Amino acid sequence: MNRTILLVEDDALMREFITDYFKREQWDVLEAENGKAAMELFETNTVDLIVLDIMMPEMDGWSVCRRIREQSDVPIMIMTARTDDDDQLLGFELGADEYVMKPLSPRVLVARATALMKRTEGTVGRDGDMLIFGGIAVNRKSHAVTIDGEPVNLAPKEYELLLFLMKHAGKVLSRDYILNAVWGYDYLGDLRTVDTHVKKLRAKLGKESRYIGTVVRSGYKFGAEG
């Protein structure tokens, strides 16, 4: 079955050019010329990957990325002509998986998109309502968590944190980003809340806690030994 990409690009010629290359590689392509149209397509279709321009009318790419991450862990690849490191960091903190610079080769873009899909699909297994990483299995319907088949009792926030980290496997996530995503922007606590819950979660995960480690930029990464 073909994968489906949502291509969000306001330049019609660039959009057509990129679409042609993806179709040659047997991708189905949904096209959006601005952020508002992108959200409408995203909410009415099932997509496997989003390639997202930043500077667009109606709604910019940052806003689209933020809104999609509130409801989905679909892989997102940002493409932009902006070279500022802070822009790239913002993209990753908002939940983007890849960041590619314009001008770009459509062939390289397709190759990187294919590699991203293989990496995403190969890191965390999905089987219906189940999310699986190593010996950790999470039933998203019942909220049951097991380690090598043995049940583990997690507090509600510990469960939400684990699920969030599993969905973002392989990414470096700042404490600020984790706090806002799991506890909400209106949470009045401080960043030590994240450290405390990660420490408790590591204790309950036993040997599988090796997948959660402290990494660069004072954040956490799921999927790397710590």
CATH class membership of the largest domain: Alpha Beta
Q: How helical, in percent, are the residues?
A: 40-55%
What is the CATH architecture term of the largest domain?
A: 3-Layer(aba) Sandwich
As residue ranges, the low-confidence spans are: none
Give the C-alpha Rg.
Answer: 18 Å
Structural class from helices and strands? alpha/beta
Helix-strand topology string: EHEHEHEHEHEEEEEHEHHEE
Strand tally: 13
Taking the alpha carbons of the first and last residues, their distance comes to 37 Å
Mean pLDDT: 81
**Largest β-sheet summary:** 5 strands, parallel
So what's the overall shape?
A: globular
Say what the CATH topology of the largest domain is: Rossmann fold
Strand order in the sheet with the most strands: 2-1-3-4-5
Strand residue percentage: 15-25%
Number of helices: 8
- CATH H level, superfamily name of the largest domain: Response regulator
Task: Please sum up the structure shown.
It is found in: Cytoplasm. This protein has 226 residues and is α/β, with parallel strands linked by helices.
Plain-language structure description:
The chain is 42% helix and 23% strand. It is an alpha/beta fold. The protein has two domains: 119 residues, Rossmann fold (3-Layer(aba) Sandwich); 71 residues, Arc Repressor Mutant, subunit A (Orthogonal Bundle). Strands 2-1-3-4-5 form a five-stranded parallel β-sheet, sandwiched between helices. A five-stranded antiparallel β-sheet has the order 6-7-8-9-10. Helix 1 crosses helix 5. The chain is globular, with a radius of gyration of 18 Å. The protein starts with a strand and ends with a strand. The mean pLDDT is 81.
